[in-house]
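Changelog note: in this version the structure field was regenerated for every chain. One regenerated record is shown below for reference.
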Amino acid sequence: MRVLIAVMPLSSHLYPSIPLAWALQNAGHEVRIASNAGMGEHITRAGLTAVSTGEEPDFVSAEQITQERIEAITRALGLDEQEGALWGAVRHYVLSVFGRYYAGDPLNAGLQGMADRLVDFARSWKPDLVIWDPACLPAPIAARLSGAASARLLWGQDYFAWLRSKLVARLADGSAGLGEDPLVTAMTPMLERFGLTFDEEMLLGQWTIDPLPAPMHLPADPTYVPMRWIPYNGGAELPTWLTEQPKRPRVALSLGLTTHRLFKNIDVPLSDIVAMAGEMDIELVATLAPAQAATLGTVPDNVRIVEYVPLNLLLSTCSAIIHHGGYGTFMAAASHGVPQLIAMEEGGDALATSAQIEHRGAGIAMRPEDFSIASMRKHLQRILDEPSFRTGATVLNGDLQASPSPAEVVPVLERLTAQYRSA
């Protein structure tokens, strides 16, 4: 079987696909991973074959959609209070994708180039299955035109399907108050470019591979294939200091792959966090870029600054982690049963990940309005001192382990591919 995996050019979107690509390859299938040229090195470092879709721009914010369109979609959904909290994340992820589809968008030309290259490669290589990042909407076009089966692989909650199911229901009963389907309107020009019309598979695939534990699922309609999230953060040589047992409780500080601060909207100097750690009986390991490390001044003896170490290697030695709430970091910590202290902000991953650590008693979420260095110290000390947080982290780990591994999912994908691909 030939499998094409297509992802938008973000490491946080690529990395969840790597263990599945390995599983498919180890089962004897041919695998190619397509993304923009800048992602090629990340793909080949993982021992996989990269296909370049050109120099398509890295990504785009939701501001590419006009405020008028955002307000129209918001009204159309008729969100209740709980759903309104989720809307920040949906707007951040889903509308940032659809913003580039509207006619006249300056990034649309780059997206069209990506679509052209992806379609050309798929027609030439003739994959049996295209697995795609939900944000990579040219991928189902390539699948349809090459006769391949089409499946999404999530990197977080299924914001796309949640939005789609709610919007379709309200359009059907007239409560949306719209004369058109805004998602279909956005996608139509690119579909017509390839002689296609919209159907639900162009947005949601024929099935969806879901690596999040069941308690994190949003109410939505697609057919889901559960798969355990196996953390991958890149490769590295094992540092000598990680082979030695820490003399104090080790705490990781990670700002993730795409962020450079703990909170987006309030200033929390890293030097203050480092100084806080210097006053505690812990060993803090902070993964910081050189520019960030240069702002710290004097570093206490119990703080280790490293430019990069894969979380898989680091977390197995840790008693806790402080991070921004991204799915990759959250799942890596959950996979190692490590309690988490999350800096929570609405409009991103931390809404869902914070809810899960609090639901399972696996950590504490710090909200911007209540944040102070003193409160951070208090919360961290609680996590280290109270055994209930380690117990909760073990329960959260059990949620992950309940899903089949990527290797166990491969036969399911083989059966579904045989069922859905064109003859």
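Spot check on this record: The longest helix spans residues 81-98. Residues 15 and 172 are 37 Å apart (CA to CA).
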